[in-house]
Amino acid sequence: MFLISLHGQDSCFLSWGTYITCLPKQFFSQLSPSLCASMEEPQKPNEGLNLSTLSGQYAASLGMNGELEGKFHFTDTDNYSYPNARASSGSAVLNGYDTLDAPPNYDFYSNTEVFGRVRRSRPSLFQLHSNIEEANGEGQGSPQGPEDEEKSAEPAAEPTRFGWVQGVMIRCMLNIWGVILYLRLPWITAQAGIGLTWVIILISSCITGITGLSTSAIATNGKVKGGGTYFLISRSLGPELGGSIGLIFAFANAVAVAMHTVGFAETVQNLMQENGTSMVDPINDIRIIGVITVTCLLAISLAGMEWESKVLFFLVIMISFASYIIGTIIPATPQKQAKGFYSYRASIFAANFVPSWRGPEGSFFGMFSIFFPSATGILAGANISGDLRDPNIAIPRGTLMAIFWTTLSYLVISATIGSCVVRDASGNINDTMAFPTTVDCQGTACIYGWNFSECINNRTCTYGITNYYQSMSMVSAVAPLITAGIFGATLSSALACLVSAPKVFQCLCKDRLYPLIGFFGKGYGKNDEPYRSYLLAYFIAVCFILIAELNTIAPIISNFFLCSYALINFSCFHASITNSPGWRPSFRYYSKWLSLLGAVVSVVIMFLFTWWAALIALGVVLFLLGYVLYKKPTVNWGSSVQASSYNVALSQAVGLNHVGDHIKNYRPQCLVLSGPPGFRPALMYLLYLLLCFCTTTKIHIAIESASSESHVAWLNKRGIKSFYNGVVADNLRTGVQMLLQGAGLGRIRPNVLVMGFKTTWRKDQPSLVDNYVGIIHDAFDLQYGVCVLRLRDGLDMSRRMQAHSKYVKKKNSANDFIQIWPLTDFPLCSANPVFEACSELGLQEGELYLLQCAVILVSVDPDAVLAVTQPHTVFRSRQEKKTIDVYWISDDGGLALLIPYLLTRKKRWARCKVRVFVGGEIQNMEEQRAAVMALIKKFRLRFHDVQVLPEINEDPQPEHIKKFEDLIAPYRKNAINKDGEAHEDTIKECPWMVSNEEMEKNKTKSHRQIRLNEILLDYSRDAALIVVSLPVGRRGVCPSPLYMAWLETLSRDLRPPVLLVRGNQENVLTFYCQ
User: Fold this and answer.
1) What is the DSSP letter of 972?
2) Is the distance from CB of 713 to CB of 678 less than 8 angstroms?
3) Which pLDDT score, from 0 to 100, does residue 97 have?
4) What's the DSSP call for residue 167?
5) Where in the cell is it found (predicted)?
């Protein structure tokens, strides 16, 4: 939509289609002398348009003493002061003189406050551009007060910041190392063999490595707040995908708490079993220990001891690794040999290098799905980017180093355990042989003097890396250290997930993308801790702990994490491919195509793991995506989807330049002169029914703050496809001329001008009538079609909207607020509207203030426009089985037929029957009807009722001619003075008057309009809509009052809406295929 703002140089105010008036001089006496002088002073040739009234940021208010106060102040001495503007000493250093202009400063771009320091603000363009030097002196801003200096001098409290090692690398390594490392990696090596285990590890590391590169790029493209993965994806891809993946990622972290806790409980249960202790049975023991453990972890999280716990866990894990490596070198004792450990042996390495699948999980992707959760946890650094000393360096370096070291540790452990321990062993020290032989002996242990054939054949072996999950403890030099390492890895990962899940969920709740979850977003304490989300994550973890089976929980988590990683990689690819200027990551070592590969591989592996789980995960994503698309939350994060939409729209618009216009592709693209859309809803809903692109104009003098936003919101809420913009012009016709020539982009340009009928043309000053008719002439000159809509009760619904406005209080009351309100927006239609406005508002004549050609009358809440229940219009309601009567009197190219056809395609008007009326002769009625019917049939419009009107050529009734003459009488030249000399003066002063010669030249057309109105009254009293050809008045031959009299006569006394239509005489319908 296009917004025309009229800024005049005098005290005259123009309201389109309503009135023109000039305020008396006593109103200007309320203004300061210099302001009045500036308004009377003519504009200098080298000065541009005065746009100061467009600055909605500077609202004016009425204080207790009657002065206007606000962001700028007008005092009795005409001094201007800016509370937030201060001349910077830095500007004097850089520029050599003191000025309001400020040098670059961090505070200008930051949206956060620093405790203990006053945040500086950049001077606005209004402050820099306005002529304030005469009042305050050159470059004088408000000096910085001593209190401000004192506050500025206070050093800001600097929170503890982490480097890349302790802040990112250690956190990521602790999250990556977990239960799978100690309890399942030896078992996976036994199943898949060392070779395929390395393939699984490397593929997992490639996925996490590519995701780490993508994460580094996204995280260094701006400050990442709380929310981790959700924040990264939602701010990159938008709320549609970001919201769904945030919910899934928070759930996955809650389930990961259960997985790591079950691993911890499983280790404790094995220790109890080795010592002959049990509470109930193995499964229930794991459940009991798991619930107790996760409860303790919840207490640790709420107490805030997370970082101290991480340091301790990391040291324990490193010590356990050292104990394991040392244990592989120490020669094996007989007890360890009975359990399958023989130190490094080439034969054991060769035997364990190839796979040996066993059990229901015995497959490559089965092992992959169990192992993959051990490669996750790479986002721990990005989650705390706000606490890092230098996130741009710390996140990429720490994340990638964590992936490297953990991958290396997995490769080393799988190779060493596969080189030292056989797959099956009985643990019985009596299963030795006198001489090592392979005769009648199965297994690699035979060549070392051990015979485990009996348990291998009976599938009863309890040791070996295939059967004993605690193989690393058995190999270790000090077994309790491995147990301590298991505790450290499982508890640290569980603690990290238990902290991450509530934080992500809290961020999601605060964005209010989904209903019923806002309860969990409430924070407590100075750190805004989400205690309610903690309890929700705890409840989910307990539910999955009750499964008590690690191999069942791990594949569930794998799909959720792969889904998250796929979207992270796609976010990086999408942000890169859109070439948005806002995509400027500090980390440069990434590739958009590598990110796309990572996204595709992640999705493929999801289906290879568990196809039904992948379908569920994608189904949840699509469901949540559809919900957000349906609800359309009011968030604006500058996502890559927005950038992509802009690129696609721009490319398509440019592409249309290579496509020639064709009649088959013609559609009405309307430039609507509606004023505020909510004030003339009938015009807007008509265009909505036509399914056409439209631009709406609002003609006024001064712009309120947020007025354009409220109007756009009004249109968007009702699904009206339109554009809205602002144009500053001296008067209505000039503004419309600018829009007629400049509206649109490329081939997406308006081709039809839509406006309301000027019902007050007889009360308005003749110059306004001349401008109104001149707009129609301008549209025809520029090859526009024209539509004029008239309703019986009028189009302007502003008086009903007026009840929802907040009127001005008396100026002596406290907290008075008066906002700039242009006359053209004020709902008045009388000959002298200003004084009526005063009486309606209860103001005296002297209480009306004027500021730069805008009357300060009333303050309207922008949200009130949206909250108001819109008046009922015929175009909003469902129509019964009525008729749309089309009077195709003049062939304009088919626009008069196309518009009714488009209306009947809408559900609300689908039951209406279209009747087409054409002029004709009584002796050839059937032939003419058949000819028109054949033509309409070729157009495939499905109009089956055509009526010929031979009576259209008859003379109108005398009483109706008399009414027309009375209507035009005030504008006749001979009505003023019969004297010849005076008559010449009248011609010069009033060129819009209608002469006898002009009346005689247009007599036939005048009688045609009178007769046509008689026919409309006879045939279309009960129609739902009347569409009739708009008469065309020749420029210079048909005066403006005469033309308005035609429109008035043609459409008066009709109950149905009347739409006067005239195309540009070019075909808009065709019956050809090409």
Assistant:
1) B
2) no
3) 43
4) I
5) Cell membrane
Q: Which two tokens stand for residue 562?
A: 């792969």
What stretch of H or E contains 729? strand 726-729
Amino acid present at 184: R
Q: Are 824 and 16 in contact (CB under 8 A)?
A: yes
Least trusted range by pLDDT, from 175-189, 806-820, 930-944: 806-820
Q: Which residues contact 548 (CB under 8 A, 6 or more apart)?
A: 262, 265, 283, 284, 286, 287, 290
Q: How far apart are CA 822 and CA 13, in angstroms?
A: 8
Residue 801: Cβ-neighbour burial (10 angstroms; 0-12, 13-18, 19+): buried
Query: Could you please report the per-residue DSSP string of 592-648?
Result: HHHHHHHHHHHHHHHHHH-HHHHHHHHHHHHHHHHHHHHH--S-----HHHHHHHHH
Give CA separation, 149 vs 110, 140, 153, 276, 791, in Å: 20, 18, 6, 73, 64
Listing DSSP states for 304-354 in one string gives T-HHHHHHHHHHHHHHHHHHHHHHHHSPPPHHHHHTTB-SS-HHHHHHHHS
**CB-based contacts of 33, cutoff 8 Å, min separation 6:** 78
Token pair 């106060």: residue: 69
Report which listed range, 412-421, 428-437, 906-915, 1031-1040, is most confident. 412-421
CA dihedral over 587, 591, 596, 599, signed as positive or negative: negative
> How distant, in Å, are the alpha carbons of 7, 756, 951 from that of 701?
5, 20, 48
Residue 821 has pLDDT above 50, yes or no: no
Q: pTM of this prediction?
A: 0.67
Is pLDDT larger for residue 985 or for residue 215?
215
Of 63-67, 482-486, 507-511, the one with minimum mean pLDDT is 63-67
How many Cα atoms are found within 13 Å in the side-chain-facing hemisphere of 542?
14
Asked if residue 903 has pLDDT above 70, the reply is: yes
Instruction: Show the tokens assigned to 630.
Output: 């349906």
- 155: tokens are 């050093």
| Cβ burial 474-487 (10 Å sphere, 16+ → b, else e) | bbbebbebbbbbbb
Helix axes 550-577, 364-371, angle to 10 degrees: 80
Q: What is the mean pLDDT of the chain?
A: 75
Strands (E), 10-162: 12-15, 19-22, 60-62, 68-70
Residue type, 910: A
* pLDDT single digits (tens) 101-158: 677 766 666 665 555 566 677 776 666 656 554 434 443 444 444 444 444 444 445 5
Task: Measure Cα distances from 458 to 95, 429, 447, 565 in Å.
Answer: 91, 18, 21, 43
Angle among Cα 813, 61, 36 to the nearest 5 degrees reads: 115
545-549, 666-670, 1002-1006: the lowest-pLDDT one: 666-670
First to last CA, the chain: 33
| One-letter amino acid for residue 1065 of the chain | Q
Q: Percent helix, strand, coil in the chain (nearest 5)?
A: 55, 10, 35
Rg, the chain, Cα only: 41
Higher pLDDT, 840 or 675: 675
- Checking if the pLDDT of 5 tops 60, the result is no
Q: What percent of the chain has pLDDT over 90?
A: 18
Q: How far apart are CA 802 and CA 808, in angstroms?
A: 13
Q: Using alpha carbons, select from 868, 733, 754, 728 the residue that is nearest to residue 806.
A: 868
| Number of helical H runs and strand E runs in the chain | 41, 20
Rounded Cα distance between 685 and 678, Å, is 10
Given a cut of 50, whether residue 425 has pLDDT beyond it is yes
Give DSSP secondary structure letters for 947-968. Answer: EEEGGGGSPPPHHHHHHHHHHH
